[in-house]
Design goal:
- This protein is an alpha/beta fold.
- The protein has a single domain, classed as Uracil-DNA Glycosylase, subunit E, CATH 3.40.470.
- It is built from nine helices and five strands, in the order αβααβαβααββααα.
């Protein structure tokens, strides 16, 4: 059912006119990846290349993201990749609060509910703020925080490593920590499962042999 839900949401995104960003887009970018993934990556919004192709994280930032995933032992096909807003803001400006509120309520939060990933990696401050409002990314990047039933892992956006090369070792180290974080999430999930109810023993002795109380 989750795969059908993801496809349905993607169809809605492609025809969305809920906010003004729709007027300037070439393609909306619903996001992509398996519906049964254990990890979801959330960026800010589509850029120029994403708007042209209708896919998240393509071009230079997409190539770097794939390299970073490889450092974590993951492939792009293993994860779901989405964005806070699904259409490119004009001139790559920051998304406005009303645009974020509209798009996340209509689409992103529904995607999270459908996929139900134990780990969400936020890429950049806008997606981080959805789960960890008031935090500063340079202070907490790479440090998983429990929010509800999920581990939220705030990380810098790959574009930050492209524009400021001194940030690259930091984001690489954060991605290398993902296997341990996924293992922690899996262990917590197993521990949270209720123990199966044990069947009660059946006394099959004849009634006359049963003790009377």
């Amino acid at each position: 059912m989750s795969a059908e839900s993801i496809q349905m949401i993607a169809q809605e995104v492609r025809s969305c006119t809920l906010c003004g960003l729709a007027a300037g887009r070439t393609h909306a970018v619903p996001g992509e990846g398996p519906a049964d993934t254990k990890i979801m990556l959330i960026g800010e919004g589509p850029g120029y290349n994403e708007d042209r192709q209708g896919r998240p994280f393509v071009g230079a930032s997409g190539q770097l993201l794939e390299d970073l995933l490889g450092m974590a032992g993951l492939a792009r096909a293993d994860v779901f990749i989405g964005n806070v807003v699904k259409c490119r803001p004009p001139n790559n400006r920051d998304p406005e609060p009303a645009e974020i509120a509209t798009c996340t309520e209509a689409y992103l939060f529904r995607q999270i509910e459908a996929i139900n990933p134990p780990v969400i990696v936020t890429l950049g401050r806008f997606s981080m703020s959805l789960f960890l409002p008031g935090e500063r990314i340079m202070r907490i990047h790479g440090q998983p925080r429990k929010v509800g039933s999920r581990l939220i892992v705030p990380m810098m956006h790959p574009a930050a490593a492209l524009h400021q090369p001194q940030n690259r070792p930091l984001i690489e180290a954060d991605f290398r920590s993902l296997p341990a974080i996924l293992a922690r999430a899996e262990a917590e999930h197993v521990a949270a499962k209720p123990a199966p109810e044990q069947p009660k023993p059946v006394d099959d002795r004849p009634p006359e042999q049963m003790r009377m109380f």
